[in-house]
Amino acid sequence: METDLRLESSLWIGNKRYRAVLTGWHFNWTEVDKKNRNKKTISVPVAEVVGVEEGRVEILPHKSVEDSDKDFTVCYVKRSSSGGSYGLLWRLGRTQFSCPSRVLRDQWIKHLRTALKTHSPLRPHRLLVFINPFGGKRKGRQIYHSLVAPLFELAGISAHVTVTDRANQARDYLLKKDLTGFDGVVCVGGDGMFSEILHGLIGRTQQEAGLCENDPSVTLQPCPLHIGIIPAGSTDCVCYATVGVIDPVTSALHIIIGDSQPLDVCSVHHASALVRYSVSLLGYGFYGDVLAESEKHRWMGPLRYDYSGTMMYLSNRSYAGIVQYLPADPLLSSPRDKTRCLSGCSVCSRSTERLFPHSADSASMCSSHFSQLSCDSEDEWVSIKGQFRCVSLTCMSSSCPKSPLGLSPSAHLADGTGDLIVVWDTHPLGFLKFLYRHTNTQDQFDLPFVEVHRVKAFRFFLPSDKEEEGYEEIGSLSGTVDKEERVCSVETVSRTGSQQYLVDREVQREKPNEQKTASSFLCGLCCSKAPAVSVWNCDGEILPFTDILCRVHGQLVRLYARGIEDGAAMHDFSETEKSERSRILHK
Ligand SMILES: Nc1ncnc2c1ncn2[C@@H]1O[C@H](COP(=O)(O)OP(=O)(O)OP(=O)(O)O)[C@@H](O)[C@H]1O
Ligand SMILES: CCCCCCCCCCCCC/C=C/[C@@H](O)[C@H](CO)NC(C)=O
Ligand SMILES: [Ca+2]
């Protein structure tokens, strides 16, 4: 294949002569100039070529072609440092080449297009696009038509576009309509819009496979269609955590070149029924309260989260609960191992083999493994009972602009596990420290009232007395006394975990009185009545149930993305840029 596609000749860019070479995987050109000793070769991976066109093509403000039978134009992905974010911005690079003859020009076009087909088999030809006109700052339509549609047109992608009139329209379309001929689905919006697409595609795939989504022990069928996200929401966490930047052009280019990033999905069940799927945040306590409060202030736009976050922090709430989890294999990875899941992540690649083994008896292996969810093997479940500020599960880092390293910086996008973060009740300044560490590179897990576990499944329920209580008056001050008595305990302990939890319990016992003064002060600020029960925030949706069972389904969907690129390894950057990026990425 390599030799068939190879082509080498002189080409001109303007009045300068270049030696151009197409190997199987790369298209390179180097200026031929005897005086120029530092010859710089520009090398573009064939997989990152957006298109090859006859003539001299201009793209902005609109595509125009100056016809000439000896010229051709190559459009490709060009990277630039993104300033604030830790991913790389992608832009459209364009170079116009002139050939000595038409025959050579046609040969270049033919070879480049063939190489493209060979090396990027997942490039989409037909896409379904759903635009939420009300997401984020309400700029979805504008973002799509001005920044994305021209790129899709350039790449020859045909897009079937729907601007939604109502919530769940995109989900219902995917559940019911004919999807034949589409390669992927693109959502223009935020995490809520992504979640609609996720539910539609997973539901449709299971329907067609005849699988029951309600049963957590069923191994679900991975979705055949890819999902693309054009960020136009408020948090855009899924986009940020899978691409590294919130930038519509970067995301459009990942879609065009057919990048493919598998993603773990957690199914959430209540009383033998599926409630929802989650990829980023399943959070009880603080994150649930922030979401519930923010829904009352939707008119504020993205600012509603800052306002509600402040209000809920000042409310100083904590909740009783029982958390149980099925630990993942600690030999494979750990949420405290200080690694990052970057593009080409080896932990995720190894997981692909583990999750989808080629052996004939793979299906039976998977289902027997998850019989643990139907409780016949309770011995591996670890159980914690206590009073918590928040309990969160995230299947990926859940990084977002507010928290560039995310809820769990070492979590993996596609390893078949989620990170369970348990924050015990603590004094307000301690909790503030925990929250603040999400905004910088300090370790938010290195606090005595925080624990994190890598898990395959997780259950949460209220202690029996709480179930009937519903809303009761427990202001923080009176709560302080209660909390002291309601000391948390580890009821069932795994073979390895007991010592650690007992240590945590001792530390926890100290807390409530420690900062009574600060607690009273903050309490006086705003809370007289606090609910005894919180709600679950499931990727930005409030769940109608408190008692839940969750299972992580490894690599259930695929996104048009490639994970965060390690810019420190990119040769386009200066040494200063590389070391700054390396500092952020590797903490
Ligand atoms: N036409 C519409 N009218 C009302 N709601 C819609 C419409 N289309 C989609 N939605 C719903 O709007 C919700 C929020 O949308 P979206 O996620 O795009 O923006 P956001 O909430 O601002 O961002 P984020 O989820 O990132 O915080 C989604 O749950 C989606 O179901
Ligand atoms: C003193 C500074 C306090 C800063 C607190 C920063 C904590 C940030 C953690 C953000 C995690 C966001 C995870 C993503 C969740 C999304 O699924 C969801 C839907 O968009 N977003 C929210 C806000 O619930
Ligand atoms: Ca994961």
Automatic annotation (TrEMBL):
<dbReference type="InterPro" id="IPR016064">
    <property type="entry name" value="NAD/diacylglycerol_kinase_sf"/>
</dbReference>
<dbReference type="InterPro" id="IPR017438">
    <property type="entry name" value="ATP-NAD_kinase_N"/>
</dbReference>
<dbReference type="GO" id="GO:0006672">
    <property type="term" value="P:ceramide metabolic process"/>
</dbReference>
<dbReference type="Pfam" id="PF00781">
    <property type="entry name" value="DAGK_cat"/>
</dbReference>
<dbReference type="InterPro" id="IPR001206">
    <property type="entry name" value="Diacylglycerol_kinase_cat_dom"/>
</dbReference>
<protein>
    <submittedName>
        <fullName>Ceramide kinase-like</fullName>
    </submittedName>
</protein>
<dbReference type="GO" id="GO:0001729">
    <property type="term" value="F:ceramide kinase activity"/>
</dbReference>
<feature type="domain" description="DAGKc">
    <location>
        <begin position="122"/>
        <end position="272"/>
    </location>
</feature>
<dbReference type="GO" id="GO:0016020">
    <property type="term" value="C:membrane"/>
</dbReference>
<dbReference type="InterPro" id="IPR050187">
    <property type="entry name" value="Lipid_Phosphate_FormReg"/>
</dbReference>
<dbReference type="Pfam" id="PF19280">
    <property type="entry name" value="CERK_C"/>
</dbReference>
<dbReference type="InterPro" id="IPR057465">
    <property type="entry name" value="CERK_PH"/>
</dbReference>
<dbReference type="Pfam" id="PF25382">
    <property type="entry name" value="PH_CERK"/>
</dbReference>
<dbReference type="InterPro" id="IPR045363">
    <property type="entry name" value="CERK_C"/>
</dbReference>
